[in-house]
Amino acid sequence: MSHWVPELLAPAGSLEKLKVAILYGANAVYLGGQKFGLRSAAENFTLEELEEGVQFAHERNAQVYVVLNSFFHDKDFDTLGEFIAKLEEFKVDAVIVSDPGVIKYITENSNVEVHLSTQASCLNVQSAKLWKKLGVTRVVLGREVSVAEAAKIKKEAGLEVEMFIHGSMCMAYSGNCVISNFTQGRDSNRGGCAHSCRFEYKLEGVDPNSGTEFSKNSFFMSSKDLEGIRVLPEFINGEIDSLKVEGRMKSHLYAGTISKVYSEALSYYKEHGDFLSDELKTWENELTKVSHRAYTNASLVEPAKADSIYDEREHEEIEYAAVGAILEVVNTDKNKYLLVEVRSAFNLQEDLELIPFRGRAVEFKMDSIKNVMDEDIERTRPGSLVKIPYVEGAKQWNLLRRRVEQ
Ligand code: SF4
Questions:
Q1: Ligand 1 pocket mutation, candidates 70, 71, 170, 176, criterion most atoms within 8 A of CB
Q2: Which residues contact 210 (CB under 8 A, 6 or more apart)?
Q3: 7-174+224-308: which CATH architecture?
Q4: Mean pLDDT per 10-residue section of the chain, whose length is 406 residues
Q5: How far, in Å, from the CA of 254 to the mean position of ligand 1?
Q6: Distance, CA 179 to ligand 1 centroid (Å)?
Q7: Which of 34, 35, 207, 243 has the greatest count of CB atoms below 10 A from its CB?
Q8: Does ligand 1 lie within 6 Å of residue 179's CB atom?
Q9: C-alpha distances in angstroms, 388 versus 297, 373, 381, 393?
Q10: 366 C-alpha to center of ligand 1: Å?
């Protein structure tokens, strides 16, 4: 018997990350075009890349949502119509919008489905009903609602709900932060956030209990990262339509690993109807292998408290780093090798791991590395193509990683 599970929605900061996320199990991806998205520094998609990305996704039954959640000024509407027409032509599955004016424009001038961005901070049934009236078919709820509240919103407002399940978090209500504007002159609501909440600040004040003055340095606004794998049963019971992973600016190793872990967990549930799996520990362990701060459930079950602040020295823990991606698998009687695009230099005899699309990582060591001229080399160079011995089960686009010495 097959059990219902939500959609897994992964970030696609680039065309390559889109492919990696889908091949590692994401059912849908979200991405930004060259304009109107909130990640101005991400490798946003050109129109050609967008068309290729949608085609790649649709061939694998995955959906593509395009982010248009920048805060709009009147002049931004001059080119919006042209852009929306292109998205319609490419058969993009939905756009993610926060501005009511933009929602009105798109619903009146196109047939593209509209999802409400988390930037709009929708947190209740009444608000969801209003957005539904405006033509929105799905709301990406603010990170401040619990899964139980989200389930109620879905049921009573009668529209799809999407919630974040993993990734970095804002300490402010999404869409209501201007710290970056004032500290760095960068508009966080138009793609320029400088992550000012992650900086170290000096706190000076008077202790209300003792009356003594204090002065200390602290990362008091930096949030831990969201991780909701243990909350999956609640998401499923609440029939939350889509589980979203944050991180368009993060690496392809992140896009692949997170997509793989959550999609394996959801597939397990689909087949067995529970998570009573020895794999749960493995999945949690895998989630520690991508760059992250300490993890928290944030407000998924109960409202986030002071312990959701990451007040250690601000850094991201990195246990593993990507060293390459497999561009071609050659497995014939005459030839057996993997053609690898090198991202980070690695050496002969180094211990590496191959991350298959499904199942546990495969450890291996290379007793030969060749360049594309078939000459033996001992160390690879980032950006080069090399041939390494065939690893059982390897597939095109599998990622290779190494453990980072702490
Ligand atoms: S500064 Fe921090 S809280 Fe504000 S928008 Fe940026 S990430 Fe979010």
A1: 170
A2: none
A3: Alpha-Beta Barrel (3.20)
A4: 94 95 98 76 83 98 94 91 96 96 97 95 96 98 95 98 95 79 82 84 90 88 92 96 94 95 95 85 92 89 86 73 96 94 95 95 95 96 96 95 83
A5: 20
A6: 7
A7: 243
A8: yes
A9: 41, 13, 14, 14
A10: 43
